[in-house]
Amino acid sequence: MQAGSALGNLAGVAGVHAEEAALVEQLKAGSEEAFAWLIGRYQQPLYSLIYRVLPNPGDAADITQEVFVKVFRGISHFHGEASLKTWIYRIALHEALNQRRWWSRHQRREVTMEGAEDDREQHIGRSEILIDPQESPFDAAAHAEIAARVESALRQVPEPFRTVVVLRDIEGFGYEEIAEILNANLGTIKSRLMRGRVHLKSRLAPFVEAASRRPSSSSLSMAPACSTEEAL
Question: Which pTM value belongs to this model?
Answer without folding.
Answer: 0.65
